[in-house]
Amino acid sequence: MDTAYVTLSRQSGLMNEMRLVANNIANANTTGYRAQGLVFSEFVRDMPGNPSLSMSRAEVRNTSLQQGVLTETGGQFDFAIEGDGFFMVETPAGNRLTRAGAFSSSADGDLVTMDGHRVLDSNGAPVFIPPDAASIDVGSDGTLSVDGQLLGQIGVYRVSDPNSLMREGSTQFRAEGDIETVEEPLVIHRFLEGSNVNAIAQVSRMVEIQRAYELGQSFLEAEDERVRGALKALMR
């Protein structure tokens, strides 16, 4: 049965990857979305007195931090980051990182995400914009001026270890490692960053996964027939 176990472990990994690829394709047009990938590794089971059994594992997810396409929207509360870094937002579960810069102004004057989470400045405080502001200017470093008066700086943060990013939802991340501010951020006002998913490459990978899965399924069916044939021969 070792052959079947090894093949089943491969099939399980392929199914996990297929789910990730399908999710990437579904979010190809989601603002600030980061493509996900799956890391395959080898799991060796050592059994005393018997040959070791090598199986595949596909449980570690990685996130692509490649820059997405920047598109001018003209939106007064639209922001994009060029290069390294994330916006930080305040959620009921704690502070989270995101590249989705489609913000708005709440009734209280806070800069918030589409989910109503407050955007934080470089000091970790909520970004406030007076509701009666006539003009909003944002410098390339994220400094925010309202009606010619400097109010603060939109925070741009980075994580010490990109592998510590844990995805929550489609565009938010929880950082397990250390977080620090980006010293020289590049914030672009009235632009949004699109998804960094390469839809053509993802569709191509989906086809490859499907073919690999079908090949494994054919092998399992052939192995099942072989075992059945051997059992029938032994019972004669």
In total, the number of domains comes to 2
Could you tell me the number of beta strands?
Answer: 18
Which spans have pLDDT < 50 for at least 5 consecutive residues?
Answer: none
Separation, N- and C-terminal Cα atoms:
22 Å
Task: Walk me through the structure.
The protein has 236 residues and is of the alpha+beta class. The protein folds into two domains: 2-65 and 197-235, no CATH class; 70-193, no CATH class. It has helices spanning 2-26, 199-235, and strands at 36-45, 53-63, 70-72, 79-81, 87-91, 94-98, 104-105, 111-112, 118-119, 136-138, 143-146, 149-153, 157-159, 165-168, 172-175, 179-181, 187-189, 191-193. It has a five-stranded antiparallel sheet, with no helix packed on it. α1 (2-26) packs antiparallel against α2. The protein is elongated, with a radius of gyration of 25 Å. It starts with a helix and ends with a helix. The model has no long low-confidence stretch (mean pLDDT 88).
Tag the structure with descriptive keywords.
236 residues; 2 helices; alpha+beta; three-stranded antiparallel sheet; elongated; five-stranded antiparallel sheet; 2 domains
Topology:
Elements: H1 2-26, E1 36-45, E2 53-63, E3 70-72, E4 79-81, E5 87-91, E6 94-98, E7 104-105, E8 111-112, E9 118-119, E10 136-138, E11 143-146, E12 149-153, E13 157-159, E14 165-168, E15 172-175, E16 179-181, E17 187-189, E18 191-193, H2 199-235
Antiparallel strand pairs: 1-2, 3-18, 4-17, 5-6, 5-9, 6-15, 7-8, 10-11, 11-12, 13-16, 14-15
Helix pairs in contact: 1-2
